[in-house]
Amino acid sequence: MNTYVRPLNGGLITKARVVPTSLQADVTVVMVVYRTGEALEHSIAKVLAEPLVDEFILIDNGSTGEEEAIQDAAAGADRRMRIFRGHGNVGFARGCNMGGEAAHGRILVVLNPDAFLQPGCIAALVEAVDATPAPRLVGARILNVDGAEQRGARRGEVTPVTALISLTRLSQAARGLERFEIHHEHDPEPGQLLAVPTISGACFAITHDDYAGLGGLDEGYFLHVEDVDLCWRMRRSGGRVLFAPMARVVHVGSTSHTSPLKVEFFKGLGLVRYFRKRADNPRRLLLAYALAPLIMLVSVLRPLLRLRRRR
Asked: Domains in the chain, please, with CATH?
């Protein structure tokens, strides 16, 4: 049965299923939840239907009563699932790190709560991790509901210039700017593992040791860009970032009850932080500071323009 226990972090009281300390899980799925909406139940069901998942840790940053009931019902029916609550909305990066601290698995699979594992996805991620020397980070092929590859599933180098060109979609409107486009979803699907600069945080796999070696996700990011930062740190440490086209996940996206304006605001803040963090000379640091207001402006305007077009 569920009970209240002390977690490994911060002395907070969390609600979690008691599990033997000797548990040796091979694959742990970590899911951070914040008012996800109706997609949550289906996402949880897909995880628990996967026989290769030995442990499922759900970090609840804040849910409605109905969503909590869905989580509790799933945990009550499957002893692999543990739920951590009571810590408030600590952000995605901190939530993932809490899950990593509590996990017993050799391999961690971080999955968005509005993403649905497809058959064979976990097996493909594990195979890719085990086939690559440490340290490594493997991203799944993220699909829209229509089966097309989602924007952001595999990306190039994220810089202030490429970010602005991609955010404004200038690469689609002006000839000669295609080479600055970050997103590569329209490139031919590779038939095998592909080394890329950046993968999506909607679903990725990493060994527990590699995750701990990098210090987990940078908790200075509240929402968005923490995955870009993790990929950069993985490559900087001498590791590889890989795109696994055979590991497929359907990502609904935009299901959260959080305001789109707030989401894009945090994305802008994350980009500004990232560019300042990785600036390794005065020129790049000056560029990061100079473009910060423009990046924030574009980030905030994007949801407003989308709303206007819909109307």
From this structure: 2-150+185-258 (3.90.550.10)
